Amino acid sequence: MPKFIQLTRAQTHNALRQFEADLSPAVRNLAQQLLAVFDDDGSASVKAVHDALFPLAETVAAAAQLSKLTKQLEQAASSKRLSFKARLSGSKQAGVAQRRISFTAVRAAPVADTEGLDA
Questions:
Q1: pTM exceeding the 0.90 threshold for the entire prediction
Q2: Which of 11-15, 55-59, 92-96, 112-116 comes out lowest in average pLDDT?
Q3: DSSP assignment, residue 22?
Q4: 107 Cβ partners below 8 Å, 6+ apart?
Q5: In the predicted model, what is the mean pLDDT of residues 36-52?
Q6: How high is the pLDDT of residue 111?
Q7: 1-29 burial by CB neighbour count: b if 16+ within 10 A, else e?
Q8: Which of 32, 51, 69, 119 gets the highest tally of CB atoms within 10 A of its CB?
Q9: Contact yes or no for 25/31 (Cβ under 8 A)
């Protein structure tokens, strides 16, 4: 079974670049805004994301919009055969300020360098 790892901000950016052409301009813009909120470790407070992307929406509506955005990103990645998934951590009961969002992908299998052996 493949092992999923949390992507850093840079890795998330690189993954998005692989399928951003398949996104509508509006979704691409929201994805870039989402990435701007992320810390270097590749996660962000859900509250910070709601405030940055959906400032006028109530918490429930902002959560629904964020869910729709992540599903569209996952579908675009899937169409390119990439394993790119959104992950929310933290308790729902603790509130959005205590929850974090990040993206995960399958850890790439190491490829052996056999150049010396091939010669």
A1: no
A2: 112-116
A3: G
A4: 2, 3, 4, 5
A5: 96
A6: 59
A7: eeeeebbbbeebbebbeebeeebeeebbe
A8: 69
A9: no
- What's the confidence (pLDDT) of residue 63? 95
pLDDT digits (tens, 9 = 90+) for 56-70: 999 999 999 999 999
Contact in structure between 87 and 67 (CB atoms under 8 Å): no
SS3 letters across 41-104: CCEEEHHHHHHHHCCCCCHHHHHHHHHHHHHHHHHHHHHCCCCEEEEEECCHHHCHHHCEEEEE
Task: For residue 68, give the amino acid letter.
Answer: K
Other beta carbons less than 10 A from residue 99's beta carbon = 18
Give the contacts of 2 (CB within 8 A, at least 6 positions apart): 83, 106, 107
Lowest mean pLDDT among 2-6, 23-27, 92-96: 2-6
Quote the CA–CA distance of 42 and 61 in Å, as a whole number: 24
Can you tell me the mean pLDDT for 31-42?
96
Strand partners, 72: none
